[in-house]
């Protein structure tokens, strides 16, 4: 399943440092749960699946499913709950269950580094945490798609482009001018960015903007036009069209489902 078909929403995130042992040998959770190990090792069991995990491994458990675990050495790990915005088929869901191995450990370590720097749940921290979770899933999908063709070589120019897009996502931004500033044609820029991050610059930009739009739909009473203005979209109509296409439901429906 290509990453463009994966849409997840972060529910909670806790970082545990040097945890000697789990409080319970088995537990269940109401959401999908991700154990992302930064240091140390533990053994786990999910139904009939069992194994050992350490740095470079994700262990994902579906909701309402017994999660057995025991530390082998002190653990430092990220503990995340998430939900699917587009519910996967049973076959797809099974491919996201159990241990997933990440080869690009440099990019993974970078995600962990930034997750640790975002302890709060203010708007900016939440947006960045959501992006880190999405990128972690992207790593899995990217390595599944390219398998042995994938290398960990970093495209410095595209990292620069991604940073620029992240810093200017919610204002007036021209991808054409960005490509020219990088010394590339728009086609070259799109191909090279997709090769580096498995999505086009416009897809990456929309992902950032839609993450902020979801946050504002959940936590404010702003009109759709006002939310569009805060997220870099031209107007509420265009935001509604992109939101419905990418998230699978209209903004009004999303707001009614996720607002408390």
TrEMBL record:
Query: Which molecular function GO terms apply here?
Result: DNA-binding transcription factor activity; sequence-specific DNA binding
Kindly give the InterPro entries that the UniProt entry links to this protein.
Homeodomain-like_sf (IPR009057), HTH-like (IPR037923), HTH_AraC (IPR018060)
Keyword annotations of the record: DNA-binding, Transcription, Transcription regulation
Q: Where is the HTH araC/xylS-type domain?
A: 159-257
Q: Which organism is it from?
A: Paenibacillus silvestris
Ranges that cross the membrane: none
Keyword Plastid present in the record's keywords: the answer is no
Q: Please identify the protein, giving its name as recorded.
A: Helix-turn-helix domain-containing protein
